[in-house]
Amino acid sequence: LTLERDLAAALAAGQLQMHVQPQVDRAGRPVGGELLMRWPRADGASVPPHVFIPVAEESGLIVALGAWALRQACAAVLRLQAAGLAMPLSVNVSPTQFRQPDFVAQVRQVLADTGAPARLLVLEVTEGLLIDKMDDTIGRMHQLTALGLRFSIDDFGTGYSSMAYLKKMPLYELKIDRSFIQDTPHDANSRALVQSMLAMAGHLGLRVVAEGVETRAQADFLTAHDCACLQGYLYARPMPLDALIALLGRVS
Ligand code: G
Ligand code: G
Ligand code: NA
Ligand code: MN
């Protein structure tokens, strides 16, 4: 309860931050990024999102938090574009946020308010979104796709949903969960699963991002099996947007 109250206060006081973790292509060139929320507390301690996001989900605060995240994502896309670094950015959308009756209207409004190009925004949703009200979810996804946004399935392979949704949904991308990447290439089962996910995505025409790439051996295995995009500590940790702009400015 204290955490919930502190989080609401931090949001109101403008103390939350959005960091961005670059995503790179097979040659290691940055091609996009994922926005990740950060809550640095006044006392110097930082509360990790795997602690505060579930609290926000429980309390409903995720709706306000998610609206803020979406606005931040639009601002970040515009700032990158202004720096000559136009690239798509992904933002996590929680199931509760997505199921708000006015979610599509909210997205339309934030695009109109900010002038951010929808084609540079990717919404990351999890398989948990697909457990119920599948038709409603798909309908919304089509409405948002019509606005120009794209969808990514986050933590792919860890949900309990069937794969039937893959043939019904307007998807752009799968993100292979880092638990599979972690045990690749040394563990034969993980290797087989990653290879199968890459092949399946290829046949479905979906882009794949491998999450949590930490070692050269993992990157080599993934690129050898046609993984288009890699994200992880091997390349960069999540960082403030200014740091990314400085980094990319030096590279290009
Ligand atoms: O940033 P990582 O370091 O610790 O994130 C942990 C978890 O928090 C991940 O599951 C991630 O998807 C989630 N998360 C991070 N930022 C956001 C956000 O802006 N919105 C939502 N809904 N989840 C987020
Ligand atoms: O659930 P989601 O995929 O949105 O969360 C991304 C999470 O993964 C964030 O917490 C981010 O900080 C973390 N992360 C990103 N790259 C790496 C990595 O290479 N290794 C590990 N262990 N975590 C990572
Ligand atoms: Na994510
Ligand atoms: Mn993920």
UniProtKB/TrEMBL annotation:
It comes from the Bacteria. Residues 1-252 form the EAL domain. The keyword GTP-binding does not apply. The keyword Iron-sulfur does not apply. Keywords: Membrane, Transmembrane, Transmembrane helix. This is EAL domain-containing protein.
